[in-house]
Every structure is written in structure tokens, then in C-alpha cells.
Amino acid sequence: MNLVKEHAAFDVETIRKDFPILKRKINGKPLVYFDNAATSQTPQQVIDVIVDYYSNYNANIHRGVHSLSQEATDAYEQSRQKIQKHFNAAHSHEIIFTSGTTHGINLVASGFSSLLKVGDEILVSALEHHSNIVPWQMLCERTGAELKVIPMNEAGELILSEFDALLNENTKLVFVNHISNALGTINPIEYIIEKAHAYGAAVLVDGAQSCPHLKPDVQKLNVDFYVCSAHKICGPTGIGMLYGKEKWLKALPPYQGGGEMIAEVTFEKTSYADLPHKFEAGTPNVCGGIAFGAALDYMNAIGFNAIAKYEQELLSYATGKLSEIEGMKIYGTAKEKTSVISFNVGNIHPYDIGTILDKMGIAVRTGHHCAQPIMDYYQIPGTIRASFMFYNTKEEIDVFIAALKKAIMMLS
Amino acid sequence: MTIEDVQKDIIDEFSMFDNWEDRYQYMIDLGKSLPLIDPKFKTEDHIIKGCQSKVWVHADMDDDKVKFTADSDAIITKGIIAILIRVFSNQHPKAIIEANTDFIDQIGLKEHLSPTRANGLVSMIKQLKMYAIAYQTQLN
Ligand SMILES: Cc1ncc(COP(=O)(O)O)c(C=O)c1O
């Protein structure tokens, strides 16, 4: 079922009509949604796919002989193929449905427990989402491997010479996000992958923040694992994907036991199902999986080149306007960054500004953005983060700037 | 004044404002005028967990009445604390334990009462009541 029509040319007003939530009023003011890096909004085309699923072919998949089950299975597997095509994976069985980025990272970390030993090293970048550092700490506790951190500079860029120096024969795995959620830095993952491979280390890239803004080609990147969440790419929550090279997915043991992931079970021994089912125990989020495919259709119909170009315009427009404000300090000034701006104004607490902005209908994020190590680096309690998607406008940025100035006036 | 009397006063004061700007400006000003906590109490064990901003609370008992002092690094949070302290400070522990907090809704700050909101108003109230419970057991 393809409910997504082509968007002829990039026209933000037409695009905005696709998003019913953008018509909402918050505290009596039109919603200005600038918390896209946390969760993106859902277009009607994807909502329709969800409604269609529950209205017409909701059934358990892969095991039914009846028609509904077959329809649901077909749609789910077609969606896997869409995802494969989108990321240019060599095989559709290299795409594992997960509940999201966090699940994908834990799946890989857990799988590596059986492959690591004392003396092995894992490298993670200083720009990570801190909840994603925990699985690696747990892995190191289980295996005796050591966790090392690739440091960043004042601009929020990874220091590559330090990365080079950390790499050695004991490095088994490198974990880095493609784009930092707190600062928007685009990391040079091509370089990192190539260097890591020279030492035989595998690389897992966290694509949670990149997939909304660009279209990664996993074969061209030659990345070993790539993870993302649909809810940041105009899809629903609770669904995401793990791409893994076939050789790696075969080498890793299953993550969870249950239905779907087995070929044969006796009390003596169980043989595991082939990929991708080996990693998909239990009834999955069928509707979510199908809607994930529809969300990618939607984004592709608009086109990632057009999206990137427009979002860069928003970023430079907002950066320019913000910079004119007295006491403004923007964190994360990497040369390569996406439409995320983290900032503080003078000594005003980010929470105070966030609260006042909300009264004026503007949704931003305040706090440490799950990146405590980055906040520690800058020695601040947190920042205000405004993050834009292709459905945001310069007019909204103007409203945001005016509201911000008002908040500053009230709070000073 | 009883806790209820103080709450009534606060409701009266807030009823003068007919828009959120004035209400918030008033809270911000209250925050600025909050008598500060003695710096020696601004330690980890005086921090209330569950707040995006830092909140420190200290309590003393004098003449069977609990006295609270507090501080926060965020000004709106400080304003909220100032209101809470006005309500709860200088009261008998039993009165603090039994007090209800519906007045927060009535002064238009209901959104801050959500237990999931990261400002920790709910944890703050809980903490003030915990102090009162502790002092009440001393009195028994
Ligand atoms: C860089 C990064 N990694 C991982 C996550 C976690 O994603 P999820 O909560 O969908 O598992 C996020 C979400 O904020 C993120 O920004």
C-alpha cells in the first residue's frame, strides 16, 4: 500500500499541511515545534498507514495460514525491503527490526560479550548520548575489556589525532554517533570506519540523529553496524532498525529467546532461525514496522537533498538571529553540523527560558540532553536546544527569537 | 496565620493578574526576593532529586514550628519555592503534614504540579512534608 504521493518541488507550506499536529495551539499560541531532535512529528500519510493497518489487516505475522496474517506479513517484509533499499544494504536480512536505537545498541553490545576478552578495548566518542555509554560499560564489566573515550575540542568536534593514537591491535569495537544530539556535530565516520578497520575493529554507528537529515549508504560507508529510531524520521515510536553486515550478524549470538527466533526446539537443544529472525524474538511491532517504511517513503518523496538544503538555510538563519542577542553563547560550532542549536544566554538557567518559551507555545529542549559528559566539558548545567526539521519555517524562527527576547527581559 | 489563611492571601494576590506574563513576572520577582539558604547547607544531601534545576532545602525547628530556607539555581523554581516556604514555614509540623496543596492549581500554576514535570515541585512538597514528619516524631 503506497499512500505517499510525490512532492513535486520543495514547498514548505504544502509540506506543513501534511502534519496535523502543526495546527495545534499551546497555551493559546500556535505551536512552534523545535524539539525535533527528541522526536519528529508524523505526517498524515504515515498516520493513514497506521489507521489502515488496524482497520484492515491487523494480524500476527509469519505464522498464520490465513489471509490477514499473509497480508500483514507481506507488508512487514516489504517494509524491511524498503529500509534495505533506503540504506542500500546488500541483503534485506541484514535489516533487523528493533524497538529503537537503544535496543539496537544493546543488541550489539550484548552480542559482543561472547567475542571479547580481558585486554580488549572499546572506543566510544565523547559526544555520545550518555544512556548509550551504559551498554558498553556493562559489556566491559562482563568481559574485562576496557572502555576508552575519544575526546572532543571546544567546537564540539572529535579530535581525530587522539582517536588515531587510541587505536591499536586490541581495539575490537568503535562506537560513535553519526551526528551528536546535543550539539549537532556531524562526525567524520568515513575516516573513523576506515581507520578502525585497518586494526580489524568493528564500528557501530548511532544514526539516531543523522537519519532525519541525510541518507546513509551503509555499503559505501562500509560500516559494520548502523542503528536508528523511526520516531525521529517522521515514523512512530517503539520501532527502529539495526543494520549489520551479514558476517557480523552471523557471528553474534541471539539477543533474546522466544518465538520467531527459533528453527526447531526440543528440551535438549534449540536451533536458531536464519537472519533476520534470529534477532527478532516474539511478536514484533508489526504496525510500527510497516509505518516505518511509509515514513521513509514520505521523506524520500520530498527528497533528502532538498531537505538538507532547506534545513541548512534554517540553521544559518537561526544562528545569525541568535548571535545578535546579547550574552548569547552557542555550544557546538563544528564546521559540519545539522539543524541543532544548543545555547545559553548570560547566566540565565536554561530551565527558566524553556518554561517561559512554553508559555508562548514554543517547544524546545532544556537540560543536559542525555549528554552529561559534554555538559561537564563546558562546565554548564545544561543548555537550551532548538532543533529544526524540514517542516519548520523562518517565520517560526522569528516567533521564537521574539519570544526568547521577551523571556530574557522577564528573567533579567 | 494558619496555612489556609496564607494560601487564601496568595490566591488573592494572584487573582489580580489576568495573564500569564504578570503571573510569571511576579513569581520571578518572588524568586529574587527569596531569603537565601545559609551556604553551608548548599550541599549534596540538601539537594532535592527530580529537578532539572538544583534545589536545596534546609529545615529547623524553633518553638514547635518548622522553619524552612531554600535556594535554587533557576529563578522560576526559586519563585515556586518562595511561595511554598511562605505557606509552610513557621507552622506546626502537624499542620504541614495535613496541609493540602490545591491552591497551586488555583493560582494558575497547575502545570507545575505534574509529577512528570522536571521542575520537581511535587518532590519539593514531598521533601517539606518529610521534614515535618521527622519533627513531628520528635514531638511525640
Ligand atoms: C544520538 C542518539 N542516540 C540514541 C538515542 C536514543 O534513541 P531511542 O530513545 O529512540 O532509543 C537518541 C535519542 O534521543 C539520540 O539522540
UniProtKB/TrEMBL annotation, chain A:
Biological process, per Gene Ontology: cysteine metabolic process
Keyword entries, A-Z: Aminotransferase, Pyridoxal phosphate, Transferase
Catalytic activity: (sulfur carrier)-H + L-cysteine = (sulfur carrier)-SH + L-alanine
Keyword Transferase (UniProt): yes
Cited function: Catalyzes the removal of elemental sulfur and selenium atoms from L-cysteine, L-cystine, L-selenocysteine, and L-selenocystine to produce L-alanine.
Species this protein is from: Winogradskyella aurantia
Protein name (record): Cysteine desulfurase
CDD domains, alphabetized: SufS_like (cd06453)
Cofactor list: pyridoxal 5'-phosphate
Family annotation (Gene3D superfamilies): Aspartate Aminotransferase, domain 1, Type I PLP-dependent aspartate aminotransferase-like (Major domain)
TrEMBL record, chain B:
Span of domain Fe-S metabolism associated: 12-130
Family per similarity comment: Belongs to the SufE family.
Organism: Winogradskyella aurantia
Name the UniProt record assigns to this protein: Fe-S metabolism protein SufE
Pfam families xrefs: SufE
Annotated coiled-coil segments of the chain: none
